[in-house]
Each structure stands twice: as C-alpha cells, then as structure tokens.
C-alpha cells in the first residue's frame, strides 16, 4: 500500500512540475543595422607588409547566428606621401584586400569608406613595437597553485611613450586572450605580457602577437575590456556607454559605425607549452 502511495505522489509531483513549465519569449531590443569596421593594418616584422585586408560587416540581432557582410563598399587608404591604396572586395564576402600597401613607421594613414551613399573616415599613425625576446613558463600559478602561467618578455624603448596590444591565441583549445599595456611606470625597462588559462596544458600551441598601438586605441580597448569583462554585465544589461571607435560617419553622424581603424607594426612568436 505504501508503494502505491509513493507512486501516486511522484506522479502528482511530476504533473505539477510539468504544468508549471512555460515558454518565455525574451524581447531583445532591436535597432537598424550599423556598419562594423574591422580595419586592422598589421606590418609584421621581416615582411614587406604589402598585403592587407579590411573586413566590413553589419550589426545583427543578438540571437542571429550569422553576421551579414557589408557588400559593395568603396574602401581607400591614403598616406601623407600621396599614395592611394584601393581595397577591392573578394566576391561578396565583405573582405576587401590590397596587395601594394606601403607601411612606414610613424606614417599617418587616412581611411575612407563609402557605403550606402554615406562616407566614413578615420585617421591613425603606424606605431612601432618591441619584439618578444623570450618566454618564461611557470607551472605553479593560479589560486590552486597548479595552473600554467606564460610571461612574454620585451624591452620598452627609453624616453618614448609606448602602448602595446597583445593577442595570445591557444590554437589547441582554441582560446583568445587580448591585453593592452602602457609604459607609464615601466619606461625603458624589460617587462612582460601575461597569459594564463585553467585549461592550458603541456603540448598546447600558443601564437603570441604584439602590436604597437596609439594612445587612442589603448584607451578604446581599455574601456571595451572593462565593459565586456567579468564585471561588465550580461547581454541583457544596459552597458554604461556605447564604446565608439575612431571611425566617423561624415554624411550622417547619428548613424555612427562600430569598430576601429588601427595601423601597427607587429611581432609574432609561436610557443609550445612545456
């Protein structure tokens, strides 16, 4: 008899739990699509730097699985030596490429994009970067003392104001970590960029890239990291402010784009975790 009562009780409990399940439709705010500009011109050390590309897409609703490309744009970069570099779209991919770009340290470059009869512009300076000199690995890091920590050492030039953008890519996982540094308190010293991840293990391949950046890009990335970090809130929370890059819509300022135009000397090193 007790077994029968238990069966009836479990059946009723299952019925009430199932009856309380409702489908909730999340009403996510939408907005007209904006142009997203991914214009990172990188001159890697010991390369001519002539082959460059710019990616243009459109913003999309949060739950969309595909990012639409921005097709049919006119993309041009000019420099102070009166050189003009035309970027041509590869089919309808939103990737615009150029194979005769001329990089120059401290050269000033102007980006002009014409899309949907609106003109977007930005200006940046190509900044030099210090090479990664060596890697130091520690196997007793983290709170538990068993995490692998990687330090990429480089020497900052003395009596210069420098800003750095580091990208650590774990090709085995894959995982990407982005960090920015300035030399306000380390001018002229040997310092390091830091990377760790609880899943990092022996045999993993790390691609370490260091980019020389301007102060305005450093500030852009610093704010962006604050808003998208652990304390930045979820996708449905109101962000403190829209993080705007250096690209301006000259035709219709209210229809501002997302993204950034950056020009950097870059260094790359591949490291296998020991």
Question: How many H/I helical runs?
Answer: 2
What is the H-and-E element order?
HEEEEEEEEEEEEEHEE
Q: Output the strand order for the largest sheet.
A: 11-10-13-15-1-2-5-4-3-6-7-14
- What global shape is seen? globular
Rg is 24 Å
What structural class results from the helix and strand content?
mainly beta
What is the percent of helical residues? 10-25%
| Euclidean distance between termini CA atoms | 65 Å
Largest sheet descriptor: 12 strands, mixed
Low-confidence stretches: 4-13, 230-239
The averaged pLDDT comes out at 87
Beta strands, count:
15
Q: What percent strand?
A: 35-45%
Task: Give structural notes.
The protein is mainly beta and 274 residues long. 12% of the residues lie in helices and 42% in strands. The chain is built from 2 helices and 15 strands. It has helices spanning 2-19, 215-228; strands spanning 35-44, 52-58, 74-79, 84-89, 95-98, 108-115, 118-125, 134-141, 147-155, 163-170, 175-182, 190-196, 205-213, 248-249, 258-272. It has a 12-stranded mixed beta sheet with strand order 11-10-13-15-1-2-5-4-3-6-7-14, with helices on one face. The protein is globular.
């Amino acid at each position: 008899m007790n077994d029968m009562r238990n069966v009836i009780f479990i059946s009723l409990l299952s019925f009430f739990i199932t009856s309380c399940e409702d489908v909730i439709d999340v009403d996510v705010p939408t907005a007209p699509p904006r142009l997203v500009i991914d214009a990172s011109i990188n001159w890697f050390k010991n390369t001519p730097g002539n082959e460059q590309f710019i990616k243009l897409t459109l913003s999309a609703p949060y739950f969309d699985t595909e990012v639409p490309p921005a097709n049919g744009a006119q993309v041009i970069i000019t420099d102070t030596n009166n050189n003009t570099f035309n970027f041509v779209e590869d089919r309808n991919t939103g990737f615009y490429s150029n194979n005769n770009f001329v990089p120059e340290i401290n050269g000033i470059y102007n980006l002009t994009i014409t899309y949907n009869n609106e003109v977007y512009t930005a200006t940046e300076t190509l900044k030099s970067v210090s090479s990664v000199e060596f890697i130091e690995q520690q196997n007793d890091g983290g709170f538990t003392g068993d995490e692998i920590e990687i330090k990429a050492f480089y020497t900052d030039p003395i009596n210069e104001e420098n800003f750095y953008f580091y990208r650590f890519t774990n090709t085995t996982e894959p995982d990407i970590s982005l960090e920015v540094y300035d030399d306000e308190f380390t001018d002229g010293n040997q310092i390091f960029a830091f990377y760790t991840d609880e899943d990092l293990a022996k045999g993993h391949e790390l691609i370490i890239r260091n980019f020389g950046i301007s102060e305005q890009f450093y500030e852009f990335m610093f704010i962006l990291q604050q808003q998208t970090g652990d304390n930045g809130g979820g996708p449905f929370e109101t962000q403190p402010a829209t993080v705007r890059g250096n690209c301006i819509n000259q035709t219709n300022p209210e229809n501002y784009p997302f993204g950034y135009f950056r020009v950097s000397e870059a260094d790359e090193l591949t490291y296998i975790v020991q």
